[in-house]
Amino acid sequence: xxxxxxxxxxxxxxxxxxxxxxxxxxxxxxxxSQFITSTPPALASPQPQASPVPVVEKAKxxxxxxxxxxxxxxxxxxxxxxxxxxxxxxxxxxxxxxxAVNKDRVFIPTGFQSKELIVNAKLLLGDVDQYxxxxxxxDGADEVDHDLNAIKGGxxxxxxxxxxxxxxDTFVIVADYRKNxxxxxxxxxxxxxxxxxxxxxxxxxxxLHLIGSPKATLRMAKAKAxxxxxxxxxxxxxxxxxxxxxxxxxxxxxxxxxLTGVVEVGLFCHMAKAAYFGNEDGSVLIKWHDGxxxxxxxxxxxxxxxxxEISATNG
Length: 315
Ligand SMILES: O=C[C@H](O)[C@H](O)[C@H](O)COP(=O)(O)O
Known about the structure:
This is Ribose-5-phosphate isomerase. This protein is α/β, with parallel strands linked by helices.
């Protein structure tokens, strides 16, 4: 199986002087994962060659940095951190705001991956049961429509993600240009992620087939025999629906949620205040909840020069 390219690692050197409590346990730093950024292990010489960052990764980073610059302000003390491959860039930008501002903040994860990101960045970790009111949550998405409705759950994290989105005064989505759609299901064709109680999965599947998703299937794990199990111990079903049903995601959400055995649906309707899309040309498109759009051209968007190259440490 090809090893995915390493994601860029935040420069944490400024945060290691003892202001932050040391982790109580060893984390997964150094392991290769699609989602976890960590300091790579020391490599024997010769040093690996730098290779250009793929355009999509730059776009994710631009979206994440721009959103952090605008929404994670010094007065914000409780911050929700979403899941996925765009979110490491959110943490990277927050770390770059400096230890003075970060020492009074607590960060709430949406799952195992974001918990590792927070701990590895030596930021203070909290949980939503301690902090049910969050100043701002920033998260990725699998697809976002013209009304800022989103499909989420490609990484099976949407239950906790929805709780943190709801708990937040401000919920902001960050993504690359591929996620920007008119209608959900256009680019993200594998279906709406649905978290279900394991013992009820067959019944939920049957009911999903009946309400309009004949191809709904249980999500199977890639490097394990059997189904994907969420951070909450549940199964995930992916349910593709026809375009006419995806055009009204709120109605679809309520229908799916009514099925007994469903824990949460990866349709986020009327939740986001703004969605930031990094573009291939270095610009950022911002879609606001009131229908307005804003275009930050490449000359005004955050500069990526310092990290334009990525070490091919996994190569
Ligand atoms: O369960 C996973 C989440 O909903 C992610 O936020 C979503 O899949 C987007 O991930 P990425 O930023 O990797 O596209």
